Amino acid sequence: MACAEAWRDNGEVLASPMGIVPSLGARLARRTFSPDLLLTDGEAMLVGLDGTVEGWLPYRRHLTMVTGGRRHVMMGASQIDRYGNQNISCIGDWARPARQLLGVRGAPVNTLNNPVSYWVPRHSPRVFVEKVDMISGVGYDHANGARFHRIPRVVSNLGVFDFATPDHSMRLASVHPGVTVAQIREATGFGLVIDDDVPYTREPTAAELTLIREVIDPGGTRSREVGD
């Protein structure tokens, strides 16, 4: 549900979710509170909720949306720091990494040219780090005022986070039901901004749960990343 909320009030933008839970979230958002969202087949077509082709999206038009702030991506993060710098490239020194990951992929272009949110299924100090080993996705302290740079939210299995602070450092926006602020603080490798009164993350309505379980993901693929 928290991933779906990332696209609330986005209007007619291209949703680019990467991974199972973000994809389910985008589809739920379009079926409910963000009906103007555009979804793709991952190749060159705009598609409806049932996969029916609704339009053609050639690469040149896709790039126009990417560089003009008309796309909202939700990516994963192997590491993320207090200012939203994301790492999916390597762990350890870049010249001699302890572990090679995906590489920077399109993260720099994504983050500098359109809104990018993040989904982290296993919140821990190894992911939420003081300083990322390599910057793949650009955070607020390295964006240099890029016109379309924005990180609306970070969603983990413990809570929701944003950057609504004077210096754009990460803030705990809500805790998931059953999770405590102390648990989140302990699982984070830097000092979060935490307000005196932190709300709980909105739970799905009965109708939204029915959509998730019976229409959007009847096969339960979401359980590969999180429990039901």
Give the topology.
Layout: H1 2-5, E1 14-17, H2 20-31, E2 39-40, E3 45-47, E4 53-56, H3 59-67, E5 71-75, E6 79-80, E7 86-87, E8 90-91, E9 99-100, H4 107-113, E10 116-120, E11 154-156, E12 159-162, E13 171-175, H5 181-186, H6 206-216
Parallel strand pairs: 1-5, 5-10, 10-11
Antiparallel strand pairs: 2-3, 3-4, 6-7, 8-9, 11-12, 12-13
Protein name: CoA-transferase
Enzyme class: transferase
Keywords: Transferase
How many structural units, i.e. domains? 1
Overall pLDDT confidence: 92
Task: Please report the first level of CATH classification, the CATH class.
Answer: Alpha Beta
- At CATH level 3, the topology is Glutaconate Coenzyme A-transferase
Number of helical segments? 6
Parts with pLDDT < 50 across at least 5 consecutive residues = none
Q: What class do helices, strands and sheet pairing give?
A: alpha/beta
State the CATH superfamily name. Glutaconate Coenzyme A-transferase
Helix content: 10-25%
What fraction of residues sit in β-strands?
15-25%
Series of H and E elements: HEHEEEHEEEEEHEEEEHH
Q: What would you call the shape? A: globular
CATH architecture: 3-Layer(aba) Sandwich
Strand order of the largest sheet: 1-5-10-11-12-13
Q: How far apart lie the N and C ends?
A: 12 Å
Extended strand count = 13
Largest sheet: 6 strands, mixed
Radius of gyration: 17 Å
Enzyme class: transferase
Protein name: CoA-transferase
EC number: 2.8.3.-
Keywords: Transferase
